[in-house]
Amino acid sequence: MDDLGRRILKLEHQYPKYGGPKDHQIRERFGVSATTYFQILNTLIDDPEAAWEDPSLVNRLRRLREATI
């Protein structure tokens, strides 16, 4: 997993503390649109390295994704 992946996981891990829309944080931290960010995140949570890095977060995000399908 690259540095971008780690930074995305870190934001996802910390974000419940901030609340509100993430769009501003995403644009400011990563310089990408929210759509691009969530495409990267969706791929990232299928990466075994991400699951090893932060298993509880990745499992929670996988459950949320499954609930919306």
TrEMBL record:
InterPro entries cross-referenced by the UniProt entry: DUF3263
Matching Pfam families: DUF3263 (PF11662)
Top-rank taxon, per record: Bacteria
Protein name from the UniProt record: DUF3263 domain-containing protein
